[in-house]
Design goal:
- It is built from seven helices and no strands.
- The protein has about 150 residues and is an all-alpha fold.
- It folds into two domains: about 80 residues; about 70 residues, no CATH class.
């Protein structure tokens, strides 16, 4: 509907230009005013169509960005399940080790991760590891574990 209206208005432009070149009369003046109004309406409709097209393009791009953001979040932040599986694997490794070897390796991990591993282990195994660990590090991990329980 709008396209037909637009084509009709575009066809009127040559007539409007021709009307401007003849001598003005009252009827001719009215026609000129009508033509000018029609021209302005046409310009507004063209602008409106362009704005609608830009809005649709912008909405499409916003949706694409949302999808890309979600994909990035999925890559950057491992799922809670994956983190739990990794933690369980570490716990199994450290539980199977001799306390001295486990302590030496846990001392090199971030305090938070070492605390998570030791908290999930049985208290006897965790105690043996903390016993042979560097005293300062053992205290920091113990404080972290105490605050968690």
């Amino acid at each position: 509907m709008a396209r037909r209206h637009l084509v009709f208005l575009l066809a009127l432009i040559p007539l409007l230009v021709a009307a401007e070149t003849t001598e003005p009369t009252a009827a001719l003046e009215t026609e000129r005013e009508d033509a000018e109004v029609a021209k302005q309406v046409l310009e507004l409709e063209v602008r409106e169509a362009a704005l609608r097209a830009l809005e649709e393009d912008l909405n499409r791009k916003i949706e694409e960005l949302k999808q890309l953001r979600q994909a990035a979040v999925n890559i950057i932040e491992p799922s809670e399940t994956a983190r739990e599986e990794q933690l369980q694997t570490l716990i199994s490794f450290y539980t199977a080790m001799k306390p001295k070897n486990a302590a030496r390796l846990l001392e090199k991990l971030p305090v938070q991760l070492a605390g998570d591993v030791l908290s999930a282990m049985n208290s006897r195994g965790a105690g043996k590891i903390l016993n042979v660990m560097n005293a300062d590090r053992a205290v920091r991990i113990s404080k972290l574990m105490a605050g968690r329980k």
